[in-house]
Design a protein that fits this description.
The protein is α+β, with helices and mostly antiparallel strands. The protein is built from 18 helices and 17 strands. The protein folds into 4 domains: 70 residues, Uridine Diphospho-n-acetylenolpyruvylglucosamine Reductase, domain 2 (2-Layer Sandwich); 147 residues, Uridine Diphospho-n-acetylenolpyruvylglucosamine Reductase, domain 3 (2-Layer Sandwich); 106 residues, Alpha-Beta Plaits (2-Layer Sandwich), CATH 3.30.70.2190; 111 residues, Alpha-Beta Plaits (2-Layer Sandwich). A hairpin with a 4-residue loop joins β16 and β17. The radius of gyration is 23 Å and the shape is globular. The structure holds flavin-adenine dinucleotide.
Length: 518
Amino acid sequence: MRSGRGRRGLTHPAASPRGFRGSFRTDPDTLAAYSGAAGPFRIAPTAVAVPADADDVQSLVEWAAREGTPIIPRGAATGMPAGNVGPWLAVDLMPGLGRVESVDPEQGTIRCGAGAVAAAVARAAATAGFVLPCLPSSAERCTIGGMAANNAAGARSFRHGATREWVTGLDVVWADGTRSVIGGGAEPPARMRALAADLTARLGDVRGRGWPLVRKNSSGYALDRFLPACDPVHLMVGSEGTLGTIVGATLRLMRTPAERAVILVGLPSLDAIPEAAAIATEVGASACELFGRRLVEMAGLAVDPLARDAAEGAAALVLIELEGEADQVISGLARVRRWTAAGGLGSVEATDDERRARLWEVRHAASPLIARAAERGRRSSQFIEDSVVPVGAVPDYLRGLDDILERAATEAVVFGHAGDGNIHVNPLVDVRTPGWRDRVRTILEETVALVAGLGGTLSGEHGDGRVRAPFLDRIWSPELMAAFRDVKARMDPAGLMNPGVILPLPGQDPLAGMWPGS
Ligand SMILES: Cc1cc2nc3c(=O)[nH]c(=O)nc-3n(C[C@H](O)[C@H](O)[C@H](O)COP(=O)(O)OP(=O)(O)OC[C@H]3O[C@@H](n4cnc5c(N)ncnc54)[C@H](O)[C@@H]3O)c2cc1C
């Protein structure tokens, strides 16, 4: 195999690696097709490889390591912060690694390839009476590898945690082309043991070193979970393709709950959000979701026969879901009713399947609704879309954001996971007006400062990607940043795995590739 030009960053592969059985393409149409992803960032790769299976991934990575070719592992490209695009070799893991095995009912686990679509795994689980409770809204499209790489989460992560809580084992091709299975009782790779020993000796408990004390985090490397027991799965989950390529996963499943009920509550002011989250915690709710006022208007909920009793006149809505045995759900509902009655809050309940599904549809329609609202040159742009703050700080965060967006004369749609303090903010950026890029840069800078001041983190489930990487040192202390750099240096010494993601390259522009041509 020859490359157009030697080492890192300048490699233009000229032909398919010897022995590689998948497809390997460099034609302009293919590069253009792989330049995009769900977010606003477009960066063409230098080549696209589609491995035939996991062994083929290993051959490809071995070759890339020899050649010094950086690679971007890629699932369904539903990720938003540009972790799945970049000027390197894109490796599409969906077509060759989509296998889903049947559920092991005794263990309550399921194995699949990294390219398996999350919803296909969920359907296989459902046939055996199980659920995968961390499913994101994008489950019909995204892959299990992408979920693990981003530590994706869903509405039910409020009670059940993000993807990391449901991954018991991973099959990984490392940056040098070696491969191992981690988790499930296997001995961690030697370099991970050495890394954990060194970082523990240096830092002790990272939570005492300025770790953001928030309920969700998909930013940086999860040292808080990796170090205590040197659990390699926790280091890989959330590593966004920067430490290795996941080729297979074993997932833990949960028995399908006997009953579920949903209650939609109108809040008189943003200040009521922490109280709603506290009630949801008290009743052991599975979800506590937020709809901002703009989304309520866009969805027409104040005149919707199903939702209007909650939505009319509300400053925001929360959707609380209860699940479990019938008596748990009934007593939880009674507690929520006492709260809404005491505060005179409008609410709507759904206990039957059809009404519950309709209330959830309102929540899942958020992204398509926002995309449709982006009209007349305005584009729904995800660049501050995933911050997390302590739940008590959510009202201050939302008010601070309002100020930032008002100064920039930019409207935004807000929704997300109220109970976790993880707020999705989608500015509608008018890319026809001169200076839009400067406005975006200012919004981004000021939002990072706001999140840092509130003790938050920049991503709760979407990952850092390329857009947030240059800001990590505003959130994380110098010693934790140094620890992140050590992780990268030990696991990927040549820097070939998704360079510029999580840790920035020198001079990296966070907005590189945003809405090109605008
Ligand atoms: C409409 C919509 C709704 C969404 N809702 C949610 C939600 O509710 N919750 C949520 O968490 N996210 C959500 N997302 C974001 C996204 O869908 C998830 O983060 C998802 O897990 C990404 O999976 P993917 O297969 O598309 O990965 P990609 O976008 O292809 O990749 C994402 C990152 O993972 C890396 N990666 C992918 N596969 C591998 C692998 N096998 N090995 C190593 N690294 C890999 C990539 O390099 C990249 O850094 C949503 C996105 C959209 C468009």
